[in-house]
Amino acid sequence: MFQNRLVSLFRRGRTSLLCRASSEAGVASRASSQTIAIREVAERSPYVFFNRFIHKGFYSPPSRNMSTTSTLLSSAEYTKAGISMLVTKGPEAQKKVGMWIFGCAAWVFSMVVLGGVTRLTRSGLSMTDWKFAGGLPPLTQEEWDAEFEKYKLSPEYKRVHRGMNVQDFKFIYWMEYAHRMWGRGLGIIFAVPFTYFLAKGYITRQLGLRLATLFALGGGQGFVGWWMVKSGLEEPVSEYVEPRVSAYRLAAHLTSAFVIYCGMLWTGLSVVMPQPPTGTIDWVRGAAKVRRFVIPVSILVGITSVSGAFVAGNDAGRAYNTFPKMGDTWVPDDIFELKPIFRNFFENTSMVQFDHRILATATLFAIGAMWFATRKLDMHPGIRSLIGSTLGVSALQVTLGISTLLSYVPVSLGAAHQAGALTLLTMMVILTHTVRKPSPALLKSLASVRKSGR
Q1: Which value, to the nearest 10 degrees, does the dihedral of the CA atoms of residues 181, 186, 191, 197 take?
Q2: How many C-beta neighbours within 10 Å does residue 149 have?
Q3: From CA 416, how far away is CA 406, in angstroms rounded?
Q4: For 136-167, how does the pLDDT look when each residue is reduced to its tens digit (9 = 90+)?
Q5: Alpha-carbon span 419 to 346, nearest angstrom
């Protein structure tokens, strides 16, 4: 009797062990398939370039039951899971459209830098007329002489460039001509592939409307640019005032360029990364905490960039070329000289530079505070790396700004400072896009993975 009971217990124990071993083998098999899926997605993903930018990347090997968006949901399963895709026809089409959008964003970046060089070399008022489609530059000496005669009638020639010869005029003319034609070239680079991708059926209606809006804004930039230049061709209000474009119009032109660039970059990121990198549910919670800091800091970076546009419009960088004091004082006496008071923030050289100094310093400290407050959070390593990189870029940008001021705004440093502003905006756009909230379908999948892993 006792012997039969022992045999029965042994059989039940063996059956239990076999079931447990089978269960563990199933879990290992699932983990192995998840690892293979991650590697396959990382190899074919158009977002893999970002993996090289940061230390561990958004497709790092799975650990702690980690899974990425691509592990949980392949590109073919996005629609079934209720996740909207901006590009159809598979990952190859997604890669092509993403590369094209990023290429257009890089073109806009170069246009902003070229525009800064054009302004710093005082070349922006060299062309006294404007045609939407553009035209050929002067090709003969007679044509150059005729163009030069038009420029001689402008206030800038009479008060700033009097005595300039044709050879010097050619330099500033070519700078402005290159800036205008570079913008028209962007229109072609955007419109032709856009039409092709639409014809191939790659672009969804949502993405098409977004890109059409960006294209319209880009076309409007030409009109805004000429509206800005036209203000500099008018006679100044006083003989002691140097001819230059309206600070308001220059700020509108530069700010709209920033908006177009950020829109392009955000759209490109949304194409190649429909869902934010996740990993574990704890990392998603960490990203949500980071998001509380990122949004206000991004707004501050944007305001600081716009204030820099008014510094450029008022040529305020060439006043108070000392730091940290402004001349012999911390706060100039004439910062509220204009009436009504609000005009000082946009037209008063002393106040405009003072504002930009305060905002730039506040931006650096805000990004530093964001890094300090989030350094111990449990988050995706890619997000942690992005925060550290953003802090580094902000410190470099402040250093460039101070160097530009102390050096009396040389063209090289001035252009680098403008490029730095756009680079910092780039980092904030990428960071904001990366910590956005995942879709409910992805959160549900992460919760199920965590539950099954217990």
Answers
A1: 150
A2: 9
A3: 14
A4: 899 999 999 999 999 999 999 988 888 899 99
A5: 22
